[in-house]
Amino acid sequence: MKLKRFPAYIVHEDEHLIAINKPAMISSLHDRIGNQPSIQHLAQDYIESAQLCHRLDKETSGILLIAKDAETYREMSIKFEKREIVKTYWAISDGRHYFKNTTVDTPLSVSSRGRAKVDKRDGKPAETDLSVIETFKHFCLIECKPVTGRLHQIRIHLATQNASISGDGIYGGDPPFLRSIKKNYNPPSNEEQRPMIGRTALHAESVNFDLYGKPYSLKAPLPKDMAVFLKLLRKYDHE
């Protein structure tokens, strides 16, 4: 993917913090394999003392917080540990669902292959609150608020509710093709059919917290691929 200059991703900056709208398909931290750039690389090129306060999966877009100094990094680490930061994600899931302030409280652990799994015996506590924002015939847009921050938590918690995220092949999501929702859809026979979104349809929409006595409410607009996916659903898959 072609990256923009780092300032193009910034949605907020002050003397303590930078908040960016992370693009999908770029790792938060340095990749051990290969020489692909990461958000950490880009941030430290922008300001040498930058440290990521948390991370997002490579395929996940959205709000990502970066401390500009060691003291702010320490303060934010404490806030994440104490669960004093409210994180809100938007996911487009396969199927019609009707979650309303629904809490999924299922312990998770990580397999040897680096995938999250339900583990009621030895797993760590994991909790996510779910509410449907918009429903379509075959999909729905869900607001997800993770109380804890386990690896792939939202993805697997939705999968346990038969609401796998569209495009999430690891946890049961299907590639969403336009032919499945558009009547009489006849693409050119010589044209490869691509899904409406080519990644896991998950976006970190906002964060809310207090730092040094100041309230923060930071949002990241939907990226083009998720916005187009929703536009197609509203046009061809409305109830």
Commentary on this structure:
By secondary structure, this protein is of the alpha+beta class. The chain has helices at 39-46, 70-81, 153-160, 224-236, and strands at residues 10-13, 17-22, 51-52, 61-67, 86-94, 102-105, 108-110, 116-118, 127-135, 139-146, 202-211, 214-219. The chain is built from four helices and twelve strands. Strands 1, 2, 3, 4, 5, 6, 9, 10, 11 and 12 form a ten-stranded mixed β-sheet that branches. Strands 7-8 form a two-stranded antiparallel ribbon. A hairpin with a 5-residue loop joins strand 7 and strand 8. The protein is globular and about 60 Å long.
What is shown here, in short?
By secondary structure, the chain is of the alpha+beta class. It has helices spanning 39-46, 70-81, 153-160, 224-236, and strands spanning 10-13, 17-22, 51-52, 61-67, 86-94, 102-105, 108-110, 116-118, 127-135, 139-146, 202-211, 214-219.
- The CATH class is Alpha Beta
Number of domains: 1
The CATH topology is given as Pseudouridine synthase
Hey, roughly how much beta strand do the residues contain? 25-35%
Shape: globular
Using only C-alpha atoms, the radius of gyration works out to 19 Å
Estimate the helix proportion, in percent: 10-25%
Poorly predicted runs:
none
Structural class: alpha+beta
Count of individual beta strands: 12
